[in-house]
Structure formats: structure tokens, C-alpha cells
Amino acid sequence: MPGSGLAAAWEITARLPGTRVVMLTISRDDGHLFAALRAGAAGYLLKDTETERLPDALRDVMAGEAALPVTLVTRLVEEFRDRAPRRRTLMSSREDEPRLTSREWEVLELMRRKMTTAQIARTLVVSPATVRSHVAAILRKLRVADRDAAVKMMDG
What we know:
It is a single chain. By secondary structure, this protein is mainly alpha-helical. It contains eight helices and two strands. α5 crosses α7 and α6 crosses α7. The radius of gyration is 17 Å and the shape is elongated.
């Protein structure tokens, strides 16, 4: 495929929101899986998937289900399970206090992984200026001075 499959998924789901995108890849990398799901993919199948399984997986996607290998579903669940306590800690119990958007949570998680602005931009398929805007919003909402302080709050 010329260009990036991830960029294609973003473009397809943005222009045709009813379209169900399935990624067929060799990558078992969590970051690639999460990026594909953020891009709107309804499926993420590995190229070593048994060929007999593919028609059923595609039918499932067309029926509104997700198509993910069990090993990747487990890692996806672990990712959310791991972050849940930190999210609850950071979320205010007061309704008048600002809360982080889902994109800000994604940026904060990537900051926690010690990614640079440029690396975060590539991962999320956005510009570095957009990442800097999200980081500024995170710092303002969490009332901290820098990235390290925001990450410490998340890990605390």
C-alpha cells in the first residue's frame, strides 16, 4: 500500500464514517494496535491469521462486531485496567473542575512512556503543534508546571 495504512484508516473513517476499516498487518506491537483503533479501525488482524478465519472475521465486522486476535484483546484490556486507578485519582469529584479529554489522556499516556512531542505527533498522526496544544491543556487542567509533574500525578 502506498503511504501509511494508519493514515489511510484515518482518512477513510473521517470521510466515510459508516465504513468499517479492518487493518491486516504483521505488527503485534501495542502502539500500532492502539493507533489503529484510535484511527477508527473496527478490526486489527494479523497476517498469520488462519485464512479460514478471515471470512468470519470480516462478516463479524460488517455485523458491527470488532475483529481482534485474542492475544491482542488481552493486551488491550490490560492497558485499560492498568490505567483505571490513575485515571480515577486524577479525575476531580467536583463537577466545576475541568476534566481531561480522551485525546488528552492519550497524550498523557504517551508522555508517561517518555515520548517526545515529535514521537507523540507521529503516533497520533497529528502535527507537533497539536501535541503542544494538548500538553498545554493537560498542564493547565492538572495545575502543574511541566510534563514531569503531570506524569508524576498519573503514576502517583
